[in-house]
């Protein structure tokens, strides 16, 4: 059975959502992580190379990095229809947007949060305002981030934007399309089920 190495209310929470979307059996292995507020600690039972979450365990296979886990689960469970297959014309869009999440979205918002300017021509990402112009333009043409169907990539994007909605991170960029997109994704029943499960063990 698939195991998600999980710390409640962290980046692994989105993967409880994704596993609920898939609907196949899975189990959670709770670990502690070092949190931004200084709480928590490194967990010796966590196979992640840097003690982070999420991690997915599938037999002897260990998969880490959110984009890799999203792709792995979409490919592993094709019946769930959460990612275009290799010969689908939308496959390229799906792969690009998954890689963009790790390589551009996360660094762009980390730069903004830390108030570090993004040096054009040196950094591999751009500032979050430019990112959001791209995202908003995309969402004005399609209902979901990789096309007109909900995919595993939406768990990453809508999950992050839902978290940022009430913060200054999206200031000036909360278009109606973005708000509708986030609402469409987070109102899915699988996310509500995941929310109920995303609690500290005990
Ligand atoms: N690049 C990683 C980031 C994972 C990450 O930073 N997770 C946080 C939880 S939200 C964590 O485990 N932090 C603990 C630590 O940094 O030691 C990914 O995309 O999977």
Structural write-up:
By secondary structure, this protein is of the alpha+beta class. The chain folds into 2 domains: 2-82 and 190-197, Glutaredoxin (3-Layer(aba) Sandwich); 91-188, Glutathione S-transferase Yfyf (Class Pi), Chain A, domain 2 (Up-down Bundle). 44% of the residues lie in helices and 9% in strands. The chain contains 7 helices and 4 strands, in the order E-H-E-E-E-H-H-H-H-H-H. The protein has helices at 13-22, 66-76, 91-113, 128-139, 152-164, 176-186, 189-197; strands at residues 2-6, 26-30, 55-58, 61-64. It has a 4-stranded mixed β-sheet, covered by helices on one side. Helix 2 (66-76) runs antiparallel to helix 5 (152-164). The relative contact order is 0.14. The model has no long low-confidence stretch (mean pLDDT 97). The structure holds glutathione. Glutathione binds at residues 10-11, 33-34, 51-54, 65-66, 102. Residues 10-11, 33-34, 51-54, 65-66, 102 line the site of glutathione.
Which CATH class of the largest domain? Mainly Alpha
Listed once per kind, the bound small molecules are: glutathione
- The low-pLDDT segments are none
- What is the radius of gyration computed over CA atoms, rounded to a whole number of angstroms? 17 Å
Q: Structural class, from helix and strand content? A: alpha+beta
* Terminus-to-terminus distance: 22 Å
What name does the CATH topology of the largest domain carry? Answer: Glutathione S-transferase Yfyf (Class Pi), Chain A, domain 2
Let me know the largest β-sheet: 4 strands, mixed
What's the β-strand tally?
4
Please give the oligomerization state of what you see: single chain
Output the helix-strand order: EHEEEHHHHHH
As a percent range, the share of strand residues is 5-15%
The shape is globular
Provide a count of the helices. 7
What's the mean pLDDT score?
97
Provide the number of structural domains: 2
């Amino acid at each position: 059975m698939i195991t998600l190495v999980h710390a409640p209310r962290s980046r692994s929470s989105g993967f409880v959502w994704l596993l609920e979307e898939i609907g196949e059996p899975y189990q959670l292995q709770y670990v502690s992580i070092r949190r931004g507020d200084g709480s928590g600690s490194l967990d010796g039972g966590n196979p992640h190379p840097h003690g982070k979450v999420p991690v997915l365990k599938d037999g002897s296979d260990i998969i880490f990095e959110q984009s890799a886990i999203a792709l792995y689960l979409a490919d592993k469970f094709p019946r769930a229809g959460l990612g275009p297959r290799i010969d689908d014309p939308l496959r390229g869009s799906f792969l690009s947007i998954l890689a963009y999440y790790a390589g551009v979205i996360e660094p762009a918002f980390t730069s903004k949060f830390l108030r570090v300017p993004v040096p054009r021509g040196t950094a591999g990402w751009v500032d979050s305002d430019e990112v959001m112009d791209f995202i908003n333009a995309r969402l004005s043409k399609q209902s979901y981030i990789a096309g007109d169907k909900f995919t595993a990539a939406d768990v990453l994007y809508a999950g992050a934007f839902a978290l940022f909605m009430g913060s200054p991170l999206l200031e000036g960029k909360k278009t109606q399309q973005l708000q509708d997109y986030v609402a469409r994704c987070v109102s899915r029943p699988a996310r509500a089920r995941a929310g109920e499960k995303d609690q500290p063990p005990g």
